[in-house]
Amino acid sequence: MSIARILIIAGSDSGGGAGIQADIKTVTMLGGHAMTAITALTAQNTLGVTGVMPVPADFVLTQIDAVVSDIGVDAVKIGMIGSAEVVNAVADRLAALENIPIVFDPVMVATSGSLLADEATIAAFGRLMDIATVVTPNLPELAVLGGSAEALAARHGCAVLAKGGHGEGADLTDRLVIADGGSTEWTSERIETRHTHGTGCTLASAIATGLGQGLKLSEAVEKAREFVRASLLAAPGLGNGHGPMGQGLVR
């Protein structure tokens, strides 16, 4: 049986709400095979992050090489990246992969507000955007990276999905801009819930799964948005803060 092989390069969330844990649940529920290269261990729950232990760049590459050399990869999702050194090492390694879609979620701050990337790491994100198929910043991240989706897409030659969840109003709009300036928008009614931990991770992993399964980018984004919304509605209500979504409960 053919199955899309999705390599996830991201940090581990001990609370299971975001990061590698959310990624694995998402890829699995959407019919893909999830593989991982863990960039950092975090101690966190629904209230915040209490500790971060980075994984050395050499071992991140060892994990990537182990997967690529044996199982193979149909798409890559990049999330929390850990350090500028890891950014550069991963960018060099992934640049050698040909015709493999790459989804980069430029994680800077956790849902709880905890910082997950320092200034040097954020400054190095350009290396990953240069090789990405699509970058998925939320509105605050977009402001830090360049101010507009059009500018970012033109500068790095990638598509940019500007996520509207941090905007105001009863509706939110996600806007996909491709490098030549074309764009597609999706507007949906906002789901009012505090259980939003892992929305960005889930969306990016769902897009990567769709691309690995052969969907066009706009189709992958549309399917991913539907999965995120279903996961928000299925959230089990765990924890006293920003609880995890219900990816595993989506049918």
Brief characterization of the structure:
The chain is of the alpha/beta class. The protein has a single domain, classed as UDP-N-acetylmuramoyl-L-alanine:D-glutamate ligase (3-Layer(aba) Sandwich), CATH 3.40.1190.20.
Written overview of the protein:
It contains eight helices and nine strands. With 251 residues, it is an alpha/beta fold. The protein has a nine-stranded mixed β-sheet, sandwiched between helices. The longest helix is centred in the last third of the chain and has 17 residues, at 217-233. α4 links the parallel β5 (102-104) and β6 (134-135). It comes from Sphingomonas montanisoli. Keywords: ATP-binding, Kinase, Nucleotide-binding, Transferase.
Helices and strands in order:
Elements: E1 5-13, H1 19-29, E2 33-44, E3 49-54, H2 57-70, E4 75-78, H3 84-95, E5 102-104, H4 119-131, E6 134-135, H5 139-145, H6 149-156, E7 159-162, E8 171-177, E9 183-189, H7 199-212, H8 217-233
Parallel strand pairs: 1-2, 1-4, 4-5, 5-6, 6-7
Antiparallel strand pairs: 2-3, 7-8, 8-9
Helix pairs in contact: 1-7, 2-3, 3-4, 7-8
